[in-house]
Design a protein that fits this description.
With about 170 residues, the protein is α+β, with helices and mostly antiparallel strands. The protein has one domain (about 5-165). About 30% of the residues lie in helices and about 30% in strands. The protein is built from 5 helices and 8 strands. The chain has helices at about 5-15, 30-35, 45-60, 65-70, 75-85; strands at about 20, 25, 90, 100-105, 110-125, 125-135, 145-150, 160-165. Strands 3-8-4-5-6-7 form a 6-stranded antiparallel beta sheet. Helix 1 crosses helix 3 (about 45-60). The longest helix has 12 residues, at about 45-60. The protein is globular, with a radius of gyration of 15 Å.
Length: about 170
């Protein structure tokens, strides 16, 4: 099975995991242990940590590759993008199954420090489907669950989330 397909399957297996309100933990103790193992701490947003967890679960047999991922992923989605952009991984505006999608929040056309991340599970001409942690399944702002979302390609948003790009899972063992 191709790497992108494996990543999408692992991400999909985690759909429905929920947090304790306020980013204070997770209702499933095993999921909390896994999130803490990738660096998440109580009170932190966890979408980027979720993406890291999924890639590491697929790559569990290759500790050296996962050590490299430790250096590239960050609790900050924007910093994660910058780290991968400067690495040998492919980063571009073309989604592929299993890629990490990174958004940055924009206000009045200015990039903010915050953003969002997810795992691409399907690619279509006018949209893509991503599996995201610290989101919701109702369409509102408050994140509390791992959910599947239909997303549009938005690279020029003046206000809100703008897609920075996609990080492809094609380096090393991953």
């Amino acid at each position: 099975m191709e790497i992108g397909e494996r990543i999408a399957l692992v991400a999909n297996s985690l759909v429905g995991q929920t947090e304790v309100k306020g980013n204070l933990g997770f209702t499933d103790a095993q999921f909390q242990v896994m999130m803490e193992a990738v660096g998440w701490k109580r009170g932190e947003a966890w979408c980027a940590y979720f993406a890291e967890l999924v890639w590491k679960l697929v790559n569990v047999r290759y500790p050296k590759a996962n050590q490299e991922l430790d250096k590239l992923f960050s609790g900050s989605t924007v910093q994660t993008w910058k780290n991968f952009f400067s690495s040998p991984y492919i980063t571009n505006d073309q989604p592929v199954k299993g890629a990490v999608v990174i958004w940055q929040k924009f206000k009045n056309g200015e990039g903010q420090w915050s953003g969002h991340a997810g795992i691409v599970s399907e690619v279509h001409d006018s949209k893509f489907v991503s599996i995201e942690g610290n989101t919701n399944d109702k369409g509102g702002r408050e994140g509390y669950i791992v959910a599947k979302k239909n997303r549009q390609y938005k690279f020029n948003t003046e206000n809100g989330l703008r897609v920075l790009g996609f990080i492809h899972p094609v380096k090393g063992e991953l």
